[in-house]
Amino acid sequence: MATKKQTVVDERLWQKMVSSLEVHGEVKFKEPMKAHTYLQIGGEADVFTCPQDTVSLENILTVLNEERIPFVTVGGGTNILVKDGGIYGVVISLKNFRRNDIAKEEKDMVLFFAESGTPLQKLVSFSRENGYSGIEGLVGIPGSVGGAIAGNAGAFGYSIKNALVSVRLMHSDKGIYEMSVSELGLEYRASMLPEGAVILSANMRLRKEVKEDVEKKIDSFLKQKRETQPLSEMSAGCVFKNPGGASAGRLIDEAGCKGMRVGDAEVSRVHANFFINKGQAKASDFLKLMDEVKKKVMKVFGTELETEIRIVGRDE
Ligand code: EPU
């Protein structure tokens, strides 16, 4: 088990590994992950890198594979809890992969291409401005297209799966290849993304509809979201999955957990499935709060809550 003291790669080793390769883009060492997550929680990553292009990403993945160095990819950092001991290995941010455009247009539909670092809301705004239907329910969900695909983001009966046609992936062993949406096995807040694969881009099919109808739907979903979710506070969205059709938020609320607090981590008083960092919360506070809430819901309803957010890193 890795401890905090162990560093898999430091500045000198990194420079040695990549010196003969083409690697463009920002690289930071001992980078606090709280600067890269919506929750503003998380210890240091040994290395945090934002490759500028596909060749740089490919070279990084090849070296990490050869040296057997672990890595994690992050999109917008919106659905993730990084533990206090930080991340052993390398964090790859796809934030520089943002090209997006219409790939193909037909009478009733458009095929839209987006690189994985494209903000999801850029797509929603584009669909609202042009009357393209299919992703209305995704309004107000922060994060990137890649992250939304990996976790099959959704709301109001919509999920990104409904619009997705295919993704382009990069893998250090398999190179660059395509997977269709059915091969990706997207289910409720889950996917079967192959281990070690990085999403480069996606193709999505949107239907042409009356612009005002699409606008109206998006605006009303956003209004509902603003009224029922603590959108302006530091959170990672819903913490637990909805168990078998019930709302985890309602169960947590009815079990009496609203306002429960461990350190600076608090169960939202607006929507109980959102846990808020009220200031200086540590990952250990957040995890302890999750555990206490789970136990309470189990005691009151006999229901086991399953975690929705992605938890990465090592304990302090
Ligand atoms: N409710 C309460 N108390 C609460 C929260 C909810 O009583 O603290 C009640 C509501 O009043 C409502 C019912 O529970 O009657 C359902 O609530 P809501 O419409 O907010 O939906 P949800 O099932 O709690 C799901 C998704 C959200 C998504 C909304 C809207 C999950 C885990 N949650 O929440 O997704 O935005 O529906 O479609 O699937 C996310 O995945 O991160 C997320 C926020």
Q: What can you tell me about this protein's structure?
A:
By secondary structure, the chain is α+β, with helices and mostly antiparallel strands. Helix content is 27%, strand content 27%. The strands form five sheets. Strands 6, 7, 8, 11, 12 and 13 form a six-stranded antiparallel β-sheet that branches. Strands 1-2-5-3 form a four-stranded mixed β-sheet. Helix 3 crosses helix 6. The relative contact order is 0.14. The model has no long low-confidence stretch (mean pLDDT 95). Bound molecules: uridine-diphosphate-2(N-acetylglucosaminyl) butyric acid. The site of uridine-diphosphate-2(N-acetylglucosaminyl) butyric acid (EPU) has 16 residues, from helix 7.
Level-2 CATH architecture of the largest domain: 2-Layer Sandwich
- Specify the number of helices: 8
Could you say which overall geometry the principal axes of the C-alpha atoms support? globular
Q: How much is the radius of gyration in Å?
A: 20 Å
CATH class of the largest domain: Alpha Beta
Q: Helices and strands, in N-to-C order?
A: HEEHEEEEEHEHEEEEHEHHEEEHE
Helix content: 25-40%
The distinct ligands, each listed once, are:
uridine-diphosphate-2(N-acetylglucosaminyl) butyric acid
Number of domains: 3
Tell me the number of strands: 17
CATH fold title of the largest domain: Uridine Diphospho-n-acetylenolpyruvylglucosamine Reductase, domain 3
How would you characterize the largest beta sheet?
Answer: 6 strands, antiparallel
Q: What structural category do the secondary elements indicate? A: alpha+beta
